[in-house]
Amino acid sequence: MTGPVQAVIFDFDGLIVDTEMPEYLAWQAVYARYGWTFPLASWLRNVGRNDSPFDPLRPFREAGGLMGPGDARALWQDEHARLEREYLKPLPGVIPLLDRLAAGGIRAAVASSSRRLRVRHLLSDLRLDGRFDALACGDEVPLAKPAPDVYLLAATRLAVPPRACVALEDSEPGVRAAKAAGMPCIAVPSHLTRTMDFSAADLIAPSLLDVSLDTIARVARGMDPVPDG
Questions:
Q1: Residue 170 catalytic?
Q2: If both were cysteines, with which of 1, 48, 98, 198 could 213 make a disulfide (CB 3.0 to 4.6 Å apart)?
Q3: 11 in catalytic set
């Protein structure tokens, strides 16, 4: 690949591995015990962030509730542990894209809102811990996405100017964070996030399978990407 791109920075949750669906389904199961509907629109307020503006335990904090917040959290953890195993695999296109980036001499990093210890653990489980040149996480920066802090930290750790990076994101807050950091951004919505507003993205791709080195280079140059294949 020729052009200004020196690095590609990946979001983690929902882009490299689908951690978002088991979290949502686990809360859905907890709420269903009481005949409640778990609100997807409210849950999406938490996706791509680490400040959790929506509190799923709020109904269980009310006086006289059928279950206390501690018991509800424990039940969620049990449901989540069971579901997470089914989703613990790289999403389609992740490994082929990493292979192409390595072959093209393009560095790769992760910029995640999640805690560093959690991301490192999951990357190890996915056998991807040796595939990234840098890692920046939500507990290492003052402000979470949609602030640019985590993307700027990733670029610093890569020793690459933000303008020479392209970001890959699955959430609206993530896209806004990347753009605020001065990076072109390709949105790859997940099943859960596809209703978010991705108008700030430079390109919306159905999957990482649709993101080629040429697509990345053209987005970086501000050109309209041509369909792959």
A1: no
A2: 1
A3: yes
